[in-house]
Amino acid sequence: MAKKEVKQNKISKPRCGLCGKVRNLTKTDCCGNWICDDEHKYKAFSYARNSCHRNHSRYTLCAYHFNEGHEGEWQTCRKCWNSFEAEMYVWYGTNEYNFVKLKNPPDYKPTRCAKCEIVIKLSTDGHSISGGKYLCVECSDRETENRIKQFESDKANK
Ligand SMILES: [Zn+2]
Ligand SMILES: [Zn+2]
Ligand SMILES: [Zn+2]
Ligand SMILES: [Zn+2]
Fold first, then answer.
1. Where does the pLDDT of residue 122 fall: very low under 50, low under 70, confident under 90, or very high at 90 and above?
2. Which range of residues forms the domain containing residue 143?
3. In this structure, are 26 and 73 located in the same domain?
4. Which ligand is nearest to the CA of 137?
């Protein structure tokens, strides 16, 4: 009897697969892994990334693939691949919100600002897209300013 008990104690408690916490867990719909049931911690519009559950369901291919109802595994899914810029695809597949990361992420060219050619990290750097081109924050601010100036001088000339 005593032996059996030891064995049972050895069965490790479920832990959040992302941060290792053992309290308030739930299972993900997409992949059935234990994860913090902490969606409520997120403040609307704060853009904070402090909720394991939210991070996994918003920022991973695993959840996207599941929510879109694709077939097969997300790692080999063409639909997922076609849904994102390569850079975002790789980020969604390899960031720390994944239980299983993409093994052989494809190479991709870094995204550069169409004006100043600075490299923009789409996952973390602010940017804007105009006419299919990416602009860094500075250039897009300048662009907006120019547009306003242009608009005002047009008005003045009329
Ligand atoms: Zn967690
Ligand atoms: Zn998942
Ligand atoms: Zn998919
Ligand atoms: Zn720029």
1. very high
2. 111-157
3. yes
4. 4
